[in-house]
Design a protein that fits this description.
The complex is a heterodimer of chains A (156) and B (174).
Chain A (H helix, E strand, L loop, with lengths): L1 H20 L10 H11 L18 H15 L4 H12 L14 H28 L7 H15 L1
Helix pairs in contact in A: 2-3
Chain B lengths: L1 H22 L19 E2 L7 E2 L9 E6 L4 H16 L4 E6 L3 H11 L5 E5 L3 H5 L7 E5 L5 E6 L4 H16 L1
Parallel strand pairs in B: 3-4, 4-5
Antiparallel strand pairs in B: 1-2, 3-6, 6-7
The chains are: A mainly alpha (156), B alpha/beta (174).
Amino acid sequence: MSTLFATAVTLVALLLANPVLAKEAAPLAEDPAVEQRLIHISEELRCLVCQNESLAGSQAELAQDLRREVRELIKQGNSDQQVKDFLVSRYGDFVLYRPQLKPTTWLLWGGPFVLLIVGLVVLVTYLRRRSKLIIEAPLSEEDRKRAEVLLKGEQS
Amino acid sequence: MNRFLLPLGIFIVLVGFLAVGLRLNPREVPSPLVGKPAPDFNVPQLHDETAKFSPQEMAGKVWLLNVWASWCVSCREEHPILNEFAKSGTTPLVGLNYKDKREDGIRWLARFGNPYLLSAYDIDGRVGINYGVYGVPETYVIDKAGVIRYKQIGPVTPAILQQKIIPLVQELNK
């Protein structure tokens, strides 16, 4: 009897104690604002080890180190652009998913529009040239009658 | 016949571009640091915690900085070539032990030979980041004025050594 009672007490105590033991999940970093900006910046940056992954998503060791570096730069009060410049000066433009606009990237940015314009010009000249080839062939009175006969024949 | 000439021409040009593109190595990202002064650092040496190394000590010399680690498989492949190169005494070779355990690095050199004048010890990879290191091993050729003149990403092969690095070092030494 007493063992049963003790067990019951222990069970109740455990049930009661559990919520007290449970803790809030630890925050990912001391400063959520810094972390927010870190994610915002690093989503725009390429991880050089796994080149199709962003710096935000990569688990490569270098990516972790670079995130640590970026975190520190943010804490030091650098702007987003300054952080990006830091990485570009070391790893080159390739780290940027959104390439900068400068003479070497003009073709990259403008190319699609140039192709679009070339395509439109080709299309317009082709259509114009083609419209000249169309010769009006009006229906003669004789043809009309023949057509009417044929149409009537169809109905009957 | 004539109307097929233009599409055919475009097709051949496209195939040409794709053929060249296939041969390029996407891992070889041109370093913006070539032609710029080598970033400065001041870190302890691998074999002697109390002694430090800074690239400034090499001013006036043409030298190579080789980034290596005991955990790096390609470094092992490259190592005999570096050992050979060091024996030739062409130019000083400094190691940068990258994100390694000190005892592992020392043991690795004891086992495979030490071609380095000394190895700087970059425990947290910060020096590596300043040099734009993303794939160990990497090798930098630095001139007398402390400017990076060449960067080799990945292992140094005998061909690269003979065709690029040694001629460049000789030219810089003139």
